[in-house]
Amino acid sequence: MFESVSVLDERIREELDEHRFYSRQSWVPPTVTADGDPVHDVVVVGAGQSGLALAAQLKLRGVRRVVVVDRQPVDEPGPWSTFARMPQLRTPKSIPGPDCGYPLLRFKTWFCSAYSAQEYARFEFIPLPLWRDYLAWFRRVLDIDVIGGTEVVGLRTAGAGQPGGHLELDTVAAGGGGGRLSARKVCLATGMTGAGRWAPPDGLVDGLPAHTVTGAWEPVDWPSMRDTEVAVIGAGATGFDNAVRALEAGCRSVTVFARRPFPKKDLYFEMWRGRDDSGVRPDEAGHPPADLLDALLAYHRLLPDRDRLRLLDRLFAHGRSPANPDYLARVRDVERIRILEGCPVDGVDYDATAGKVLIRSGDRTHAVDRIVLATGPQPGLHHRPELASLADRVLTWGDHTAGARTTPPELAAYPKLTTHYQLRAKDGDDAGLSDVYSLADLVHATVGLQSIQHVAPVVADHIAAQLYRDHLPDTLAFVERLDD
Q: Global pTM?
């Protein structure tokens, strides 16, 4: 490893400079709007781990007029700096991430240069503060242009897909005021809410006093929960993160409601651990099994739809990120949490006289003081501000399978993307939709980190190829001038 991060930075810059990586110039011909504003090659919406990886992959391909927009401040992206309450990531530290297989950009390389190989050996899962630091370093060393504190609130495709056309994005800054960005291509890398938003399930907590219910995606007043009885609705990883935090805050009791019985195995982890073939191939005994999850992440998008749906049915039979014995064994103080598995919540009321929230589940009613909702994103592309005006045009999996079969409920609201992660039109009238790429793929959004190396290069390759095709006349004109 390297003796310091500055030495590592110097090595990375030395290698990438050979490919003109840090040049602001792009092989995509520059252009401006009718008002004289620059048209970016690509605007990436979302500066989290996937958005940064995509920006880096585009720059590697010579597409360098790239800007990344995020509503969080620079280097405070997504849940890692807001409502993520886990002490560490849930994927093993060895999993490739935004580096997409480039060794000098891996978390391990950065950490061992910033700290030491001995300290790296002491943990299996990356502590959350270190992941935030790593992503900030990744952005800085690759000189990725991020506009922080800015939300994209509108996206127009009029004129896109035509010679000289482009996409337009309306933005609002945190301090007020709006602006507009123009781009040849746009990629939406908005994380777990790429196909929806954080919100309570419709009607579930209507009428409850505001102080009795909090979304896991919101700031939580933990000191006010001391000596209270708390219910967490939702038994995924986020639910247990919040249950543990409630215990740390001094709650009298914490109950987690799980709508389904827990599966016996974590299917994603089992696929990652792989299948041991040494019983069939004795010469392979003693060698690690192959990572089957890698194959799924790389090639699942290329399968016929019927085969994709067969596997998705199985993967999501127990929900998006279900608890299981292996996972529960890693939950701190799990023995102090009351877990009600297979107990869906039928309704929630409020007893004003007793000052209690009443949770109805089956034939039982549970009285608590506070509720934390860990029910996952509320689906619906119309909930996405940048897609609100386009949502009715975008083909979803629910549209695609309507009348033919039952679609997994987790999947129905997700866009039915092309194999290169482009939006598709319901009626076949593209009108610029294919210039909008989205990482709102259910498998990618669920697996997260390990899928980045399989998604970002595919999207970057296709964007670069499309830009080259679109601007072939410029290339021909350049060559013809050389012949003059």
A: 0.94
